[in-house]
């Protein structure tokens, strides 16, 4: 806040307080009214000196630095100093003891300190929340930036493999990839996208994988109807890494590869179940697991205490990998 605004604010506060006290003393009996009004200026002057000296001097020099013992002693000394100064400057006022200027300085300082600390607490809390939101936004942007190259890298590998065999499916895959990339570029400009758009994207992605894999890897999709997802939104590309993970590891077997994706929505609760074949024991391709790690981090930021993600070998079917995600939308 600009200095002149601060000065104007303080002038209005002290002027208003003085007016209220003047009106209050005008209600006193005539034998007390004059003495009380004469003591208004000394009382306001000592109170202002007490508050500004504390808030602008003692608090930043001692209290904010954790020197609480020194602060208490300095506060007591400041009150005594003001009380003594008041007796020297206005001896006749102190002699009549009207409104006792200076005697309530400690009380006024404590009230002002309480208000100051309350205001600081509110401001600091707002600053912390803003910093947390900024950090959260930066983390999400970083994670989204990592998702896009990860998907592109895997798809380009598939196109490269098809191009080596002069596959007639290469043009169709390039067209499908262009559509997926277009959606990625547009969707990531928004914090939320319609769930129906995300489901269409997953269908197109699965279709692209079917073109690449052919009959050796059956792909099963079970999706909710348009009515079930109407009006619901999710962050863009939230499920991509999980689906990608299923196709990356579930298609490495020469025989027995498969991927099954089932997504349901009931009463704003989304459930995604992915099953895929585990790679053969002799598989040495490995993987970085970047997609799954990123998804866990995004879910923690976007749906704190509103999601559950389990991913690992299916305990009932050892040769299958099971991924289960539930979200409260």
List keywords for this structure.
329 residues; alpha+beta; Heat Shock Protein 90; two-stranded antiparallel ribbon; 11 helices; rod-shaped
Condensed summary:
The protein is of the alpha+beta class and 329 residues long.
Q: How would a textbook summarize the main sheet?
A: 5 strands, mixed
Structural class category: alpha+beta
DSSP helix count?
A: 11
What portion of residues is helical?
Answer: 55-70%
As a whole number of angstroms, the C-alpha radius of gyration is 36 Å
The named CATH superfamily of the largest domain: Histidine kinase-like ATPase, C-terminal domain
Name the helix and strand elements from N-terminus to C-terminus, one letter apiece. HHHHHHHEHEHEHEEHEE
Q: Please give the domain count.
A: 2
What does this structure look like?
By secondary structure, this protein is an alpha+beta fold. The chain folds into two domains: 3-103, no CATH class; 134-328, Histidine kinase-like ATPase, C-terminal domain (Heat Shock Protein 90), CATH 3.30.565.10. It is built from eleven helices and seven strands. The strands form two sheets. A five-stranded mixed beta sheet has the order 2-4-5-7-6, covered by helices on one side. Strands 1-3 form a two-stranded antiparallel ribbon. The longest helix has 60 residues, at 105-164. Mean pLDDT is 76; it is low at 98-102.
